[in-house]
Write a structure and sequence with these properties.
Length: about 550
């Protein structure tokens, strides 16, 4: 049991460390009202030359007013007001800087909207996107000081800019920000964030931009900036938890999600970015979709209704909890399904047929076997999501229960001293966890279901294809394809590991640790196939059941 007093003390220590490392700015300043922002955002009262960019060279920025008045500006993330510095000439940019500018009339009132432009001076080749978040440092300070706060009341106003590789602007909009995550929000100095795109901040509402390369969806009401706590250099010094910073690989979750995509299943798409807060480098982040109603609607119909159930954890009145929660929709259908699975007699063939009508078995087989293959040890007691569409316009597979990969940082040997031999196949039919009961009772009552799972798993590994399935449906977890995905992600992230280490772990040989752990992942892929084939044989031939 985690001691709450230790938690509170550690939170203060972490906040002090972040402030010392980052040098946060002044306390909360005034915010423009959303109504004013909406009314004035279209007034193009100030132009910037050159425009926002990521560059390797210092520069000077010229602000030009397009209406009568005085330009006032800030470079610390806060919103300009009538007391902010007056623009008198080009602003020299010798380090990464965010300029926020506002035109004021002779009466001292603002004219038009607030304009935010980031100039990131990079001493690296920018091969992945850069995101710049700007707000009064007081907002960031409050979030970091009270990370346990959740919900709308914890949301703070920001401006978000996105720069494509090469430094060119992608989008620039006002939005809201919250801390994201469970354990990491309390113990990691490098927080994960959730970005909300809303008209209430004076922006256009949903973001409309092709953020991810492997999906046609371009409209988002929110995005997640995942810090990847348990797979990074920051996972150390936590009460009653083993340090894992020396096992940091950063890429585990993105690799696993992409493998599930290649198995033909829906995923939360993601890509790597570099994050800056008010011009300060904040590290490597994995920008992803969030699995919820709005995401699922973007892949179905805008009015579709979905149930989304998650295994969630957090603090509730001083106690740590780990429980099923409704993220969207209702709980009744999931509870009914699980009660039916628990009571059905799977020696009766009709019940096997009904199970396959209720649950998308291809999705379940792929999800369960993938979790077992990558040796995800922080599952299934945590980190799972199930979902189904329930409105009358839905059709299979949408109306069947399915599962989506999320938060698989404890995989490929992480958290287990790089072991490759743990039998996680037994977890896919565990009687102790809600999600795995979907296979537990059918495996006991009907040997055919167990054999179907084993056969499909061998097809995923590419060691069997007795039914002549096309190449796109077999071999997704072959050694070659798993290692290729590992190398793809590692090559994207590797150039920026020294920056990450300098920011969050200057005492560590970051690149050396990363390279060794990528090699450990590749070794895992080389040997895991033989290990898990043995575990599949044990499942196929074990006599724990009188299945028929």
């Amino acid at each position: 049991m985690i001691n709450l007093s230790k938690l509170l003390k550690l939170s203060l220590v972490i906040l002090a460390a972040v402030i010392a490392a980052g040098g946060f700015g002044p306390s909360l300043g005034p915010d423009v009202s959303p109504a004013f922002a909406r009314e004035n955002a279209q007034l193009n009262t100030i132009t910037f030359s050159p425009e926002a960019r990521v560059t390797s060279q210092p520069l000077a920025v010229t602000l030009t007013k397009q209406a009568a008045g005085t330009i006032r500006y800030t470079t610390n993330g806060s919103l300009p007001n009538a007391n902010s510095p007056t623009y008198t000439g080009p602003i020299p940019i010798n380090e990464s800087t965010v300029i926020r500018a506002q035109l004021f009339g002779a009466d001292g009132n603002p004219v038009g909207g607030i304009f935010t432009q980031s100039y990131i001076l990079a001493n690296y080749e920018q091969t992945i996107p850069v995101i710049s978040l700007a707000t009064d440092w007081g907002h960031f300070n409050a979030m970091f000081a009270f990370p346990e706060q959740r919900g709308k009341e914890s949301e703070r106003p920001i401006n978000i800019e996105y720069f494509e590789p090469g430094g060119f602007p992608g989008f620039n909009v006002p939005a809201g920000i919250r801390i994201h995550g469970n354990f990491s929000r309390l113990f990691s100095p490098k927080k994960s964030f959730r970005i909300y795109f809303s008209k209430s901040y004076g922006g256009p509402g949903n973001l409309d931009y092709p953020v991810f390369e492997d999906t046609p969806v371009t409209k988002f009401d929110k995005l997640v900036l995942r810090a990847g706590f348990q797979d990074t250099f920051t996972h150390r010094g936590i009460p009653e938890r083993a340090d894992r910073h020396l096992q940091a690989k950063y890429i585990s979750d993105q690799v696993v999600r992409n493998l599930h995509r290649d198995m033909g299943q829906p995923i939360a798409h993601g890509r790597w970015v570099l994050l800056y807060l008010n011009g300060q480098f904040w590290g490597i982040y994995n920008l992803t979709e969030r699995i919820d109603l709005q995401m699922l609607r973007s892949y179905s119909d805008k009015d579709a209704e979905w149930d989304v159930i998650v295994q969630e954890s957090g603090w509730d009145e001083g106690a740590w909890y780990n429980r099923e929660e409704v993220r969207d929709g209702g709980y009744g259908s999931w509870l009914e399904n699980q009660n039916w699975v628990g009571s059905a007699d799977f020696t009766v063939p009709e019940n096997i047929g009904e199970l396959k009508w209720r649950v998308n078995m291809e999705n379940v087989f792929s999800y369960m076997f993938l979790q077992a293959y990558v040796q995800h040890t922080d599952w299934p007691s945590a980190n799972w999501v199930v979902y189904r569409r329930w409105d009358e316009r839905g059709q299979p597979p949408e109306i069947q229960w399915r599962m989506m990969v999320w938060d698989t940082e404890d995989s490929f040997g992480s958290g287990e001293d790089n072991r490759v031999d743990i039998n996680t196949i037994v977890r896919v039919h565990s009687p102790h966890d809600s999600i795995t009961r979907i296979l537990e009772k059918p495996f006991i009552g009907y040997c055919g279901m167990k054999h179907e799972f084993v056969t499909r798993a061998r097809e995923y590994l590419g060691v069997e294809n007795k039914f002549g399935k096309p190449p796109t449906e077999v071999g997704q977890l072959s050694k070659e394809r798993v290692k290729a995905e590992i190398m793809t992600q590692a090559e994207i992230v590797r150039p920026f590991i020294p920056l990450e280490a300098e920011r969050w772990a200057p005492d560590l040989p970051g690149l050396q640790i990363f390279d060794q752990n990528v090699q450990n992942m590749l070794h895992f892929a080389d040997v895991r196939e033989e290990v898990i084939l043995h575990h599949l044989d044990e499942l196929r031939y074990q006599t724990f059941t009188e299945c028929k």
